[in-house]
Amino acid sequence: MKIKHNKKRNTAFVYEALVREATVAILRKEHKKRDKVISIIKKHFKPSSLLVQDLQCYRSLYENQSLDEQTAEKIFKEVRMQKMIIDPNGLFKQQTELIHDINKEVSPSVYNNFVPNYRTLATIDQMFSSKTSPKNKVILEREIVGQMRQDGDPQKSMKPVDDITYKIFVNKFNDKYQTTLLKEQKELLTHYIASFADNGMGLKIFLNSEIGRLKECIEKARTLEDLKDDDEMLTKSKQIIEKLQSFAKEGINENILMTVLKTQSLVEEIYNGDNN
Predict the structure, then answer these.
(1) pTM of the full predicted structure?
(2) Euclidean distance between CA atoms 10 and 15, whole angstroms
(3) What 3-state DSSP class applies to 252?
(4) DSSP state of 103
(5) Rounded to whole angstroms, how far apart are CA atoms 238 and 205?
(6) Integer Cα distance of 133 and 126 in angstroms
(7) Residues 7 and 122: beta-carbon distance below 8 Å
(8) Between vectors from CA 210 to CA 225 and to CA 117, what angle results, nearest 5°?
(9) What does the pLDDT look like over 37-86, one tens digit per residue?
(10) Contact 51, 45 (CB under 8 A)
């Protein structure tokens, strides 16, 4: 039943591996490598490309979790139809060009990046393969549909990085600010690391909501007994609110991320610290 899995021809694996390569480059401030990887992603994964069409087929199967059996089977059937209309020769050509650019502009080591859902991606790839027998395709279909019906952990499904990459940023924050991450800080970090997979849409949505919450918390804190008679604290709290408001006009970057993380710690200290 087993067919050798060529992960370089597995569109979803290569995409996920590139996302991780870009994430690590960002966290290590390797700007030149970051720009090269992002450039490759933008060049090859344009909305009209066969690679994107192929990627969407994979994603429809591995990103949908906690579905009822009927819905899972309908999605699977639609994916199978969409996969059949993708020109295999055209897809092979685009994959070859992508592999060439990765090898030339970055490094073949990209394919060694840890991808948490590698096994699932390999199973889907095997199911898509024309070399897989009809009997084995049915077996693989039941396995994939079964995975789509399992309860998914939202945090795990949205975190497209391994623990080592995640810890790089956590340790960086802890070393700089001598504190541990709060629940809302971990959620922000997860969205940040996942941002290349969805063009930052999830991060933008979360940040808009979280900045609104932080502004409201600080406005309320200005009326607390410990703060309302302290001119210096009132001035600083006003500056923080203005800073948060200014982010609406800026693109999301690490400076904004760190400021929000620090503000989250400040709000936690104000309402749940020793001086509560």
Answers:
(1) 0.60
(2) 9
(3) coil
(4) I
(5) 24
(6) 10
(7) yes
(8) 140
(9) 989 998 999 888 999 999 999 989 987 677 888 888 899 999 999 999 99
(10) yes
- Please give the average per-residue pLDDT across 221-237, as a whole number: 79
Q: Which of 49, 38, 56 is nearest to 102 (CA)?
A: 38
- Dig out the tokens for 245 from the structure: 């408001």
Q: For residue range 142-155, what is the model confidence (pLDDT) as tens digits?
A: 889 888 886 544 34
Domain ranges for the chain: 7-152, 158-272
Contact in structure between 162 and 118 (CB atoms under 8 Å): no
**Residue 165 exposed, middle or buried by CB count within 10 Å (0-12, 13-18, 19+):** buried
178 pLDDT exceeds 60?
no
DSSP secondary structure of 107-170 = -GGGGGS--TTHHHHHHHHHHH-TTS-HHHHHHHHHHHHHHHHSPP-HHHHH--S-HHHHHHHH
Question: What are residue 12's phi and psi, to 5 degrees?
Answer: -65, -40
